[in-house]
Amino acid sequence: MTWIADVLLLIGAAFLFLGALGLWRMPDVYTRLQAGTKAVTLGSVAMLIGVGIERPDWWPKLLLITLFILLTSPLGSSTVARAARVIGQRPWRAGDAKETP
Amino acid sequence: MHIETSPINDSSLPAWRRLALATVLGWAIWTLMTGSLGWQELLAGLLVAALVSFLAAPQLALLDGLIVRWSLPWHALRYLAVFLAALLRSNLDMARRVLSPALPIRPEIVRVPTRMRSDFGRLLLANSITLTPGTLTVDLEDDMLEVHWIDVGEESDREQRTQAIARYFEDYLLEFVE
Q1: Nearest-CA residue of chain A relative to B110?
Q2: Can you list the pairs that B150-159 forms with residues at least 24 positions away whose Cβ atoms lie under 8 Å?
Q3: What is the mean pLDDT of residues A9-16?
Q4: What is the mean pLDDT of chain A?
């Protein structure tokens, strides 16, 4: 069973890495949020499932953490995106310079 | 997010319904936290959940959106499965874009109408859209969502594909939330 847990932890780490890479490669705040939120959410969930398989007695708390992440992480991103929208940030178009973070 | 009391929350749903829902939810969270099914834990959890729900009930208008019937857990679980599958697809799509040297994106903010009537339903829909392929909810104004779309694609059937962003999840969500 442990190898399944290891694979899930590895997949989680890979998606978290992709999230970081996305933050660095994407040109503006909206696209960075897109790359960041999705990858980090799935990465965390995969890791939590991996930990749940490794330590089955932890699953109730892990389940709670997972649901909490699923509910709050996209909400946080929407809030940041809305703030950008309110100050008049328009989405990046081909040809625009990449924003410096 | 723009929170506005929608008409549904002003309706005269019995107060005990909200109280019961909040108690059950709080009790479930308590039980998951303690991870024990001993009768003392369960009893203490029930009392605390009931007390907290009673005190917080006036603030919990969010729960009024749920359609309470026996099939609710089934519909909620089915939605969760659909959602997780979409999350996985979304990540593979994003990985492809991030790793591709050409960075194939064509972002635009589009307006998407929603059929969800309650705040809770809109919250779930907005979150689902954020975590699914290429879309991010930016704002919510009454029944209109503003969605950042990372690749709007070709002009031709864009209108239809815009509608589809919300409709896919709504079909599942409307089974258990208004």
Answers
A1: A91
A2: B150/A31, B150/A34, B150/B97, B150/B105, B150/B106, B150/B107, B151/B97, B151/B104, B151/B105, B151/B106, B151/B107, B152/B106, B152/B107, B152/B108, B152/B110, B153/B106
A3: 94
A4: 88
